[in-house]
Design a protein that fits this description.
With 372 residues, the protein is an alpha/beta fold. The chain is built from 14 helices and 13 strands. The chain folds into 2 domains: 258 residues, Acetylglutamate kinase-like (Carbamate kinase, 3-Layer(aba) Sandwich), CATH 3.40.1160; 95 residues, Archaeosine Trna-guanine Transglycosylase, Chain: A, domain 4 (Roll), CATH 2.30.130.10. The structure holds adenosine-5'-diphosphate and the ligand N[C@@H](CCC(=O)OP(=O)(O)O)C(=O)O. Its EC number is 2.7.2.11.
Length: 372
């Protein structure tokens, strides 16, 4: 089993309110188009993109002619409902320039804490990515109550990064990154270029939101980096106004502040996978496949799979067993149960002819496989 192609990289890109709405003056359509152009280029390089877009409340306030953030939850929710229309219209039309379709995904805390809803949210997002659609995520502000709200989209973006097991979380904001002191108070403060996400000093330098529009400030961004690190994602906090910031990241440059997971991204992701997703089915492997998985750390190709059991969708967790029923590994599968049944024992070069399309040449890529 070799499967040497890299699994598609996956980035979650979060854009904050002040940045997106030009400090509350209205959606910055020029900047949005610039990010969209770069995201489309990322996709051309094999990087799947999920957008987490704030700005519903800020845009709703502007549309309703409110100059200060209302105190009552109901008014905030009303503003979010108005503003969300503007947000999704703007994203959809910017991506349409490139012939791409977007999808609105509104999530609440319950969606990510309940096991079944978590897996449904995951399947939907992974399916959308498989369909070449760009998901645009926000909190479902109109139905959340204070006790159950994420409150800030930094946390939501990190949980989405966990959900889709992203490689990278990019938080675009109105500052160039994390500074040693809030640059709104001290414009001379030096920029922190790189740190471990877990570094306790970060919590000391990070302050609240200085814009009055965003909710989180730097504290929630650092916490988000820690959450994202659990599933192996590195986080970049950078200025969304810096030209070509996403393209620079894709080119291997490090604009802004990079916050790294403690263990290698690979190990963190594997540990997280092992503990956080429910098994939805089983693949029975032949002896050769068992040996390649254990000894060579290879991907699982369909040719080494004898049979598929259970009702799993693409992107869900399945167990890999030997023919005596011993569990060897588990991992995120690239095909659903019907497709898997059709391609078992077949060479990857035959997938296209059998299914009429090919997602990936492996059933489970080694990056998404945990050997037990
Ligand atoms: N150490 C720090 N480095 C950079 N910005 C900081 C820091 N501490 C606090 N901030 C504030 O965080 C703000 C960004 O957070 P926020 O307004 O919530 O943005 P967003 O809307 O992008 O989520 C910055 O404008 C800045 O005033
Ligand atoms: N769901 C809210 C998100 C508010 C929020 O977290 O804003 P930010 O701190 O700018 O990312 C909205 O769309 O207004």
């Amino acid at each position: 089993m070799s499967g040497d192609n890299k699994a598609p990289a996956r980035w979650v890109i979060k854009i904050g309110s002040a940045l997106l709405t030009n400090n509350g003056q209205g959606l910055d359509l020029v900047l949005m188009q610039a990010w969209v152009d770069q995201m489309v280029a990322l996709r051309g390089q094999g990087i799947e993109v999920v957008v987490v877009s704030s700005g519903a409340v800020a845009e709703g306030m502007r549309r309703l002619g409110w100059s200060s953030r209302p105190a009552s939850v109901h008014e905030l929710q009303a503003a979010a409902a108005v503003g969300q229309m503007g947000l999704v219209q703007a994203w959809e039309s910017r991506f349409q320039v490139h012939g791409l379709v977007t999808a609105q995904v509104l999530l609440t805390h319950d969606d990510l804490s309940d096991r079944t809803r978590y897996l449904n949210a995951r399947s939907t997002l992974v399916t959308l990515l498989g369909l070449n659609v760009v998901p645009v995520v926000n909190e479902n502000d109109t139905v959340v109550t204070d006790e159950i709200r994420f409150g800030d989209n930094d946390t939501l973006a990190a949980l989405v990064a966990n959900l889709v097991v992203a490689d990278r979380l990019v938080i675009l904001t109105d500052q160039s990154g994390v500074f040693e002191r809030d640059p709104r108070q001290d414009p001379g403060a030096p920029l922190i270029r790189e740190a471990q996400a877990s570094d306790p000093r970060l919590m000391e330098v990070a302050g609240d939101s200085g814009s009055g529009l965003g909710r989180g400030g730097m504290i929630t961004k650092i916490r988000a980096a820690r959450l994202a690190a659990r599933s192996g994602a590195r986080t970049t906090i950078a200025s969304g106004r810096s030209p070509e910031v996403l393209a620079a990241l894709a080119a291997g440059e490090a604009p802004g502040t990079t916050l790294l997971p403690d263990t290698s991204a690979y190990n963190a992701r594997k540990q997280w996978l092992a503990g956080h997703l429910q098994m939805r089915g089983r693949l029975v492997l032949d002896d050769g496949a068992v040996q390649r998985l254990r000894e060579a750390g290879s991907s699982l190709l369909p040719v080494g799979v004898v049979s598929a059991h259970g009702q799993f969708s693409r992107g869900e967790m399945v167990a890999c067993e030997d023919q005596q029923g011993r569990r060897i590994a588990c991992g995120l599968v690239n095909y659903d149960h019907e497709e898997a049944a059709l391609i078992c024992r077949k060479k990857s070069s035959e997938i296209q002819a059998i299914l009429g399309y090919m997602n990936e040449e492996e059933l489970i890529h080694r990056d998404n496989l945990v050997i037990l």
